[in-house]
Write a structure and sequence with these properties.
The chain has 13 helices and no strands. The protein has about 300 residues and is mainly alpha-helical. The chain starts with 6 loop residues before the first helix and ends in a 6-residue tail after the last helix.
């Protein structure tokens, strides 16, 4: 049976067999699910189709969420990227628009893929969509990359957490950033070891990120956080491809994320009892959305 408990083992297996990380993840899934490769691949390809559709809907969306807190920002960012591109340049700005777009689709109860969670659903798809748009990667390469992302997410889930309620937003957006950075390096032809470095760099720069949703909804600050994090993942990938390496190994970074998550106060782990949720404006919005709960 193909099994890995941490990134070091996953990377070592890929290097030993001289295959991309996604092949190790697929082989494991075939063994665990007892399904043929074709069926597993088709299911992931369907995920990619849903992700693309969510992006395309997101950047055209003007619909406000039921709370009224979010909606239409992805369209604004995308239009800005087309007209100017701003300081980041058009590609990174579009990636931010894609990530915000998927998150806004989630907020209006649209169809998304939790990747790894609903609160961080825009980051990996946005990074991949932008990469495909820029570099022309075929769909098969993107589907393969999604298996690599899944492998990274599995390792983090085993050794830390992907849930905001357990580890803060670093567990959700941080994990997604690591997944996205890793797959961007793989798509660019990076070695398994380099994928680990990209994952480490991305997660390191989100350590301690709290989960403080206003009114308990996955909208503020979650939606825009997806946009920022997609760009952060792209930056981590570019640094590694430029030759930068993480001083702290990826598994130690994941362990640190776990320890930090456990030490975060309850108020900053998806309870809406601290952070932005308890600002004057945050409380006012919660009272407006849930007036009966304030009595």
């Amino acid at each position: 049976m193909i099994s890995f408990n941490n990134m070091a083992e996953l990377i070592a297996m890929a290097e030993e067999k001289q295959v991309p990380i996604h092949e190790i993840v697929i082989a494991r899934e075939m063994h665990v699910s007892q399904q043929p490769r074709e069926k597993i691949w088709a299911a992931m390809a369907e995920n990619w189709s849903v992700m693309q559709a969510s992006i395309e809907r997101g950047i055209e969306n003007e619909e406000k969420s039921l709370s009224g807190l979010t909606g239409g920002d992805a369209k604004r960012i995308y239009a800005y990227s087309q007209n100017d591109g701003g300081y980041l340049g058009s590609q990174a700005t579009r990636a931010a628009a894609y990530a915000v777009g998927i998150s806004e689709v989630n907020a209006v109860m649209g169809r998304i893929v939790a990747c790894p969670t609903a609160g961080s659903c825009g980051i990996v798809p946005a990074a991949l969509y932008a990469a495909q748009e820029q570099k022309g990667f075929p769909d098969d390469a993107i589907v393969g990359a999604l298996f690599t992302a899944a492998g990274i997410g599995m390792v983090i889930d085993q050794n830390a957490s992907i849930a905001g309620a357990a580890g803060g937003c670093q567990a959700e957006c941080g994990t997604a950033a690591g997944m996205a950075a890793g797959v961007l390096v793989e798509l660019a032809g990076g070695k398994p070891e380099e994928i680990g470095h990209a994952c480490a760099l991305a997660i390191k720069n989100l350590l301690g990120l709290v989960c403080d949703p206003v009114a308990g909804l996955v909208e503020v600050p979650c939606v825009k956080r997806n946009g920022f994090t997609a760009v952060l993942a792209m930056t981590a990938a570019d640094m590694v491809l430029a030759g930068v390496r993480s001083v702290i190994p990826v598994d130690e970074v994941i362990d640190a994320m776990d320890r930090i998550g456990r030490s975060l106060p309850h108020a900053l782990r998806e309870t809406s009892e601290g952070g932005l949720a308890t600002t004057v404006t945050g409380r006012r919005l919660a009272a407006k959305i849930y007036p009966k709960q304030q009595k």
